[in-house]
User: What shape does this take?
Amino acid sequence: GQNIDQPTEMTATEGAIVQINCTYQTSGFNGLFWYQQHAGEAPTFLSYNVLDGLEEKGRFSSFLSRSKGYSYLLLKELQMKDSASYLCAVRASGTYKYIFGTGTRLKVLA
Amino acid sequence: NAGVTQTPKFQVLKTGQSMTLQCAQDMNHEYMSWYRQDPGMGLRLIHYSVGAGITDQGEVPNGYNVSRSTTEDFPLRLLSAAPSQTSVYFCASSYSEAGNTIYFGEGSWLTVV
Assistant: This one.
């Protein structure tokens, strides 16, 4: 079967660093994506990993370990506007389907 | 640059009524899909298409029909609306090659009473 697990909710303080974990089990693997979704809005693309290691994009970084079926999204220098849901999604190999986790709701406190 | 356009944004239906959610993209993407998003359930794939004339079922296809007569358009039809279809619907598109992110429309909030 295919399954993606993320924590439901996290809380962090403005200026801090937070790590959101994602574990996945899919039939084959063809890339992992992270999306940000503010309440009442559509998801927007944050990062993509297909090889093991860290991808850095400004304040956001994403890490992948294919052997462990594990990824994390690292958010540095948290700002209030980072309060949102963060969705982990995997594209299984040999398919056009993108499977999404249920998302992690991040609250950033002043 | 319009991207992915969905209409309507909000709709209230009575049980048993039918309706079509429209989706259009202007990026010449081969892949288009429809998701529904419910609290605690995440995004679930309803139907998808990898090109004009080609459609396939996702995780939760029952009660929905799709067609892809052109590259640009991918409408979602609710045949006989049920309260269980109350949800937020997102249309999404991308290039079909692996590694391409999907782009989402703004969403359609549907309530079935």
Observations:
- Chain B has no helices and eleven strands.
